[in-house]
Amino acid sequence: MIGSEADSKKRHRNSPEQGRPAKKGEMEDANFAKYMAGFSQLLDDRLRGVARKEDVQSVKEEIGRLASENAALRAMVCRVQEENTFLKKQIEDIDRKVRRNNLILKGVPNSAEEDLIRVAGGVMSELKSAGQEPKIRQATRLGPGDAPILVEMENSQVIPGLLRNATKLRNSGVGISRDMSPLARNSCNKMLKLRWLLRNRYPNLDLNMRIQYDKLQINGRIFEWVAEDLRCGNEDGVLSLGSIVKEDVVGLLSELKNFRGGDRGGRGQKNSKPDP
């Protein structure tokens, strides 16, 4: 028993695992593992805010979804704009039909006991052409004092002839014009301005120009404003007009871009100058 304990102590003193320094290779392995752990932690810290492959794919899918929604919204906006344009045109057509028998008289003094039908009839008698017998359905002042008079004729066929003779009122202080909606009036004013520009820019060209309501006829071709665009039937009005005058008219038409002019002959306006 005593010998066994002595042998155990001897083995303990002679064990290579106790008390000897670590070898150089073991120290390098330990330091490498330590450095790699620190580097791994540092790399994790630096890359924590960097998108992963899964994140990039998710962003791509979200962008695709938003692009699809944007395209759908654009298509919806286009449809709404087309419907709005169509409805505005329908309303404008109805408004024109309501006003087509109407004329506006301006500059007619108010009197205490005035008979507007008789007063308006006197003006129409002065303007009527041979064989015409313009009949008035009703006449109404559009405001107090010397406000314009709205005259409703029994039919619209006499109106062009009356307007052609409007120059007879030039020195009387009285003006006559069609009853037009604001949109039609603005288009008419722009056509009058366009006609004036063409006459002054091309005095030597044989341009047969005539205002037809809110359109302009030039050498048999009808031009009209559709929103802010000049149209000639289904053609681009800028190109059509350029082919008539034999040069580019973009610069000339730019003068009409924001032109509104005096609201000639419209209800409640002061300008009494007659339409052509």
Task: Give descriptors for this structure.
single chain; 276 residues; alpha+beta; Alpha-Beta Plaits; 3 domains; five-stranded antiparallel β-sheet; four-stranded antiparallel β-sheet; 8 helices
Question: If you had to describe this structure to a student in words, what would you say it looks like?
Answer:
- The protein has helices at 2-14, 24-47, 53-99, 116-127, 159-164, 182-201, 237-245, 250-254, and strands at residues 102-106, 136-141, 149-153, 175-178, 209-212, 215-218, 221-226, 229-232, 235-236.
- 49% of the residues lie in helices and 14% in strands.
- The longest helix is centred in the N-terminal third of the chain and has 47 residues, at 53-99.
- It has three domains: 53-99; 100-178, 2-Layer Sandwich (Alpha-Beta Plaits); 182-254.
- It is an alpha+beta fold and 276 residues long.
In total, the number of domains comes to 3
Please state how the strands of the largest beta sheet are arranged side by side.
Answer: 5-6-7-8-9
Annotated CATH architecture of the largest domain:
2-Layer Sandwich
Number of strands: 9
Protein name: BEN domain-containing protein
Organism: Nesidiocoris tenuis
Region (Disordered): 1-27
